[in-house]
Amino acid sequence: MIINEDTTSTASPFAGKVYPNPATNTVTIEIETNKETTVYFQLYDITSKLLIEEKWPYLNDKFSKSIDVSSISSGIHLIKLFTSETYQVVPICIAKW
What we know:
By secondary structure, the protein is mostly beta strands. The chain has strands at about 15-20, 25-45, 50-70, 75-80, 85-95.
C-alpha cells in the first residue's frame, strides 16, 4: 500500500528547438521556459572544440535567437543548451553548398 504518493511534475524547466537542419548561414534557437532562468548556448565541432558561446540571462516564457554560423565550416556539430538544472544537446549539420 502506497501512502502520500508524490504526484508533482518533474518536467524540464525549458525546451529548445533548433532549425533549420541542415543550416547554411544562420541557426534559429527557440526556447520555452516554465520559470525564469538563465540559458547558456554552446556550439561545438565534432572534435569537441568550442566554436560559439552565449549566455541568455533571465529568460521566462518564449525566446528566439538567430545565431550566425556563416563562418563555421561544413560538417556535423553539436549545440548544447543548458541551465543550472538541465541540458539539451542537439546535433546539427552545417552545409555550405
